[in-house]
Structure formats: C-alpha cells, structure tokens
C-alpha cells in the first residue's frame, strides 16, 4: 500500500470519487507527520481524516474515543471496507482482548480504537513504547476532543491526561477532532492537549441539508404527530424532551399511536438503555424519545429528523442536538415546538439548581440567546452561524423564516398595554389571567381580585387571545418580563420594560403564523424537503434494496448502514447498474464491498426489473 495515494485509497477502499472540503489538506498534512486540530461539523467527514493517513503510514493508527458503545460499529464498518481494525475497551472479555493484543504485536492492525482509560494505563503505554521503538505507530487520533472541556456536558477527566501522548511520543503525529463550534471550547482543546503547534483546519459549521423550523406550541403532541405523518412516516429520528417523565410519557403515547418509539434517559437501567440504543441503530425507522443523555456520537447517518418538544438549554445544545440529523448529507429536519410555558419551566430549572450564582447567570444568558433565536424572523442558518462567529449570507431556502418569511409588526402599543396590565394587577399573575383582564372577561378570578375596576380591564379587544399570548411570550423571551418563581409563575416587570412603558422605545414583534393557514402550506413544503427520496418509498426496487441490506446486516449482526448508506442505495436506485463495473462506480462502493455485495445487489436490481 506504500505506493498508493490518498486519492486512490479514497476511491478503492471507501468508494468515493473526491475529497470533501478540507479533507485532502488534512490527510496530506497528517501523512507528512504534522499535528492537526480538525474542527468540522457532524457529518463533515472527520473519520476519513485519520483513517486514510493511518492506512498510508507505517504501523497502526491509535484512535482514542470516549464512545465505547460505538467502537464496535466503527470497527465493523472498517472491516466491511477490508481494513483490519479492532477495539480495546471494557466491553471485551479477557480472551477477546488477548487476541487484540496479539494482533497488535504481530503488526496486523491498521486501526485500533481505544477507550482513554485503557490508553492511559501504564501497561498500554509501555506497549506503545515498544511499538514506537520500531516506528510502528502511524498516528494518534483524538476523537471527540471537546471531552477535555470541563464546561461541556461530555467532560471526561481522562482526556486531560492525553498530553502524555505528546510527551512520550513526540514524533507520532496527533490529530484531534471535534464538531464543537464554540470558540472557548476550541481554545481549551488546544491548551489541554498541548496542540499549540498543530495546524488548525476549521470548516464551516453550516449544515445546509438540515431544515430548521421553530413552531409555536399549541398542542405539542398533535403537532408532533402531524409533523411525523406528513414528513416522516417511515423515518428514524430523535424526539428530545426535558424530563425523564416526559420522555416516558411521550414514548408511550407515540407507541399507542402506532409509532415504533422507544424511550432513552439516564434513569433507565443500563440493559434497557443499551437495548433501545441498539434497536435505534440497527433497525430502520425507529423513533427515539430521549433526554439529552442520548446522542453523543450517535453515528447513525440516516437520522432524518430531530424534534424538540422542549427547549434546549442553549444555542450550543440546540446546534449539537439538531446536528445529529442528516449526517449522510441527505435532507433532514430540525423541528421544534416552543411556547411560553417552555420559557417559564426552563428558567425555573436553571434558577432552582444548586449551581453557583455566576454559573446560573451564564446559563440564563445562554438561554436568552436561544430564545432570541426562537423569536427571530431572520434566516435560521444565518442566526445559528452568527452565534458561533461565522458569516452566512442568509436566504438559505432551508429554514422556516426563509421559506415563509415572517412579518414583524409595531407592537409598541400592545406591549405597553400588556406590561401595564402586569403592573396594575400587582405583578403576581400568570398570562392566562392577564389576558382575561385585557380582554375584559369577567371570570371568577377577575371578580375575586376586583380586576374589572382596573384601567387596563378590557382595553385589549383589538387583539385576539392567541395574539396576546404571542405578545406575552415574546416580551418574556426578550427579557421585558420575568417569571417570578416564588409566586407560581407570575410575571414581573424588569428594568428593560421601563423605556417601553414610558414610550421611549418601540417594540417590534414577530407575527406568529396562523395555524390553519400553516397546515395548508405544509404539504407542498414537505414534498420539497424529501426530494432525493421522491418516489423512492413507493418504488419496489427501493424496498427490495433495503430488504437486502437488512438481511445482510442481520446475518452479520451489524447496523444496516455499515453495509451501505442510504445515499448509496439511492444511487443504485437511480442508476440501476447492470454490471459489476457499473456497480463499482456507485459512491460508497469500494473494492471490498463490490467483491462482497456487488453480485447480490445486482441480482436485486435484475429481479425487480424482471418483476420477480
Ligand atoms: P463526522 O465524523 O464528521 O460526523 P463521518 O466521518 O461519519 O462524519 O462522515 C459522514 C458521512 O459522510 C459518512 O457517511 C461518510 O462515509 C461520508 N463521507 C465522508 N467523506 C466523504 C467523501 N469524501 N465523499 C463522500 N462521502 C463522504
Ligand atoms: Zn434561512
């Protein structure tokens, strides 16, 4: 293999025609022995960046990964490509581990995945030293490098000790990779892993194939159900909820409605959790209802949607969670239903935790940035990237605000009414009651507090209930109103409300879409988002190709995408190859897979053509 070029390996082993983005530059840099820090979004194609150099350099590439559950799949995928790979972690029994050690000593492996705690044992480091004396370590890849960061929720203390690699093996190139978009984490990675000398490769963090949508919550379950029915009747996806209880309830409800939904949260026992994760990975069309405990390093490429039934905690969280959709580059949806109640419960959760005050303040600011995003009328792709310090021209054609531009309206007067109603009622009532007062409804509560006497009683008849609710939500999101946790969610004015009440500041709000009108537009829109799959689901060949893939995957106990990705099956569907030669030109069909599966898939194409 010593005479191969990266391009040739890309083609022969992986079956791809060309490198993407910075891949080629990274690969060449590492092959020539340089250290690299690779910042690339999920789905950007990070794995090739260390796999190809490992194949082209002498010795074995050591890949440090915190994701024990996924090492098996990664190794399986490499074996499918004809690459000799193995992993070492606590899930291996002693015999299997001994066999891996034998393979290492015999120099049989090109890639070895290791959990950080295993890597850091003195025994393992000694073994590496033995290898290195004969120059038999190709490189160190540090995957999910953001795990060194104390601030992220993926923090792994063992990652901190990885500087030892640099100290004990200075001649071995190191490549650290992460999909984390925020600058502070990047700086921490450089510092903690002693990567000051490494060349940094920063890709755009845009995920152009993800269509972002934020919709106003009115009946979240029904909204989710109709989103699934119209856009994802057969797809795998993730539904995020804030609490374990809601995860359980939502999963149960979806199941009742006939969806193949499973729960996942940290409160489930390890066996159930693992079983559910395996089903999600290995079967088609499973919906995982989960807390944020689910997802880090979920390598499943064909997650077609990520739905949020509750607000994420920050833009970072939102980007990371939605980023699990569409890793294969095919169209995917990020859909969120959001309402005032979410703002209230999220703030409540942040404030009631036992984090130090300063930390709470930071978290509240992060939440505010996310709320600003939710209420924004600008391009979502642009807004997300701007948050991470990247420019985007906007007008993406792939977000709700670009597809159906949202009006803003001069809500100055309405805001004054809404705020003064809060003030007149004593800053202790929730939105429902405030709206009753504005609309002049004589409810028992209004009578009890004698609120029909107030100057704000009935002054709001020019707007409907739903519009007032939109006004209040946006005033809370914008920080003009605070939710008083001690007073059961009553609203209070903040300092920021003063200039508005005094008439010194205008307020412009988004005009929420009318739910009825929205429904009519949805069918047209959803058709577009599934273009590459258009017709596929009804095509007997598509079903036959998927069935063949499932059969092969079952036989070998691997996830279907390890055999072929959806994008490869789609290409077979569209090109209907008739010879092995034509099959070999399909993206994702390298030499090993062509030899292993070429005939079988050609047979499927032929059978379907003959109506078998
Ligand atoms: P990441 O680890 O950055 O999330 P992966 O390495 O899993 O991304 O790659 C994402 C997907 O893109 C995979 O399906 C991979 O096979 C595919 N891919 C990567 N590089 C290329 C390329 N140059 N051409 C075509 N497909 C690619
Ligand atoms: Zn847009």
TrEMBL record:
UniProt catalytic activity: Couples ATP hydrolysis with the unwinding of duplex DNA by translocating in the 3'-5' direction
InterPro entries xref list: DEAD/DEAH_box_helicase_dom, DNA_helicase_ATP-dep_RecQ, DNA_helicase_ATP-dep_RecQ_bac, Helicase_ATP-bd, Helicase_C-like, HRDC-like_sf, HRDC_dom, HRDC_dom_sf
Molecular function GO terms recorded: 3'-5' DNA helicase activity; ATP binding; DNA binding; four-way junction helicase activity; hydrolase activity; metal ion binding
All copies of domain HRDC, residue ranges: 535-612
The UniProt record lists the keyword Transport: no
NCBIfam families: recQ, recQ_fam
UniProt-recorded name of the protein: DNA helicase RecQ
Species the sequence originates in: Ferrigenium kumadai
Lineage: Bacteria, Pseudomonadati, Pseudomonadota, Betaproteobacteria, Nitrosomonadales
């Amino acid at each position: 293999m010593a005479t191969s070029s990266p391009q040739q390996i890309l083609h022969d082993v992986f079956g791809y025609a060309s490198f993407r983005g910075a891949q080629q530059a990274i690969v060449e840099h590492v092959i020539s022995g340089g250290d690299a820090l690779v910042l690339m979004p999920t789905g950007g194609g990070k794995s090739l960046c260390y796999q190809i150099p490992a194949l082209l350099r002498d010795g074995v590439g050591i890949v440090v990964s915190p994701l024990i559950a996924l090492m098996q799949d990664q190794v399986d995928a490499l074996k499918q490509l004809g690459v000799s790979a193995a992993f070492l972690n606590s899930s291996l029994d002693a015999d299997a581990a001994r066999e891996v050690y034998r393979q290492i000593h015999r120099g049989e492996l090109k890639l070895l995945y290791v959990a950080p705690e295993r890597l850091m044992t003195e025994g393992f480091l000694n073994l590496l030293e033995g290898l290195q004396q004969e120059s038999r370590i190709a490189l160190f890849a540090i995957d999910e490098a953001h795990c060194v960061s104390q601030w992220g929720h993926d923090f792994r203390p063992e990652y901190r000790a990885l500087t030892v690699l640099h100290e004990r093996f200075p001649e071995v190139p190191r490549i650290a990779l992460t999909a984390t978009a925020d600058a502070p984490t990047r700086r921490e990675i450089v510092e903690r892993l002693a990567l000051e000398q490494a060349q940094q490769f920063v890709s755009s963090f845009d995920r152009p194939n993800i269509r972002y949508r934020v919709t106003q919550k009115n009946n979240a379950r029904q909204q989710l159900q109709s989103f699934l029915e119209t856009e994802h009747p057969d797809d795998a996806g993730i539904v995020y909820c804030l609490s374990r209880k809601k995860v359980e309830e939502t999963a149960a409800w979806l199941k009742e409605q006939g969806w193949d939904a499973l729960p996942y949260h940290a409160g489930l026992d390890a066996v159930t959790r693992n079983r559910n994760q395996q089903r999600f990975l290995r079967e088609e069309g499973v919906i995982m209802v989960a807390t944020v405990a689910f997802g880090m390093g979920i390598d499943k490429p064909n997650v077609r949607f990520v739905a949020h039934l509750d607000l994420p905690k920050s833009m970072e969280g939102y980007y990371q969670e939605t980023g699990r959709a569409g890793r294969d580059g095919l169209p995917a949806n990020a859909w969120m239903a959001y309402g005032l109640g979410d703002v209230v419960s999220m703030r409540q959760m942040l404030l009631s935790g036992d984090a130090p005050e300063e930390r709470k303040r930071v978290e509240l600011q992060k939440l505010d940035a996310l709320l600003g995003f939710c209420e924004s009328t600008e391009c979502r792709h642009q807004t997300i990237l701007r948050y991470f310090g990247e420019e985007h021209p906007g007008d993406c054609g792939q977000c709700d605000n670009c597809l159906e531009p949202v009006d803003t309206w001069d809500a100055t007067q309405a805001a004054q009414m809404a705020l003064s109603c809060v003030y007149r009622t004593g800053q202790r009532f929730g939105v429902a009651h405030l709206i009753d007062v504005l609309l002049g409804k004589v409810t028992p509560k209004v009578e009890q507090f004698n609120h029909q006497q107030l100057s704000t009683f009935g002054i709001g008849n020019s707007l409907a209930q739903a519009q007032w609710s939109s006004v209040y939500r946006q005033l809370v999101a914008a920080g003009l109103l605070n939710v008083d946790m001690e007073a059961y969610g009553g609203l209070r004015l903040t300092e920021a409300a003063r200039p508005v009440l005094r008439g010194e500041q205008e307020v412009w709000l988004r005009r929420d879409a009318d739910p009825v009108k929205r429904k009519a537009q949805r069918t047209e829109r959803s058709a577009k988002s599934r273009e590459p799959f258009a017709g596929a689901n009804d095509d007997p060949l598509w079903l036959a190709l998927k069935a063949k893939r499932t059969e092969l995957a079952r036989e070998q106990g691997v996830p279907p995408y390890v055999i072929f990705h959806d994008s490869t099956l789609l290409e077979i569907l569209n090109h209907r190859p008739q010879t092995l030669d034509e099959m070999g030109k399909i993206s994702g069909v390298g030499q090993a897979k062509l030899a292993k599966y070429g005939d079988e898939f050609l047979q499927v194409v032929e059978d379907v053509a003959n109506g078998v």
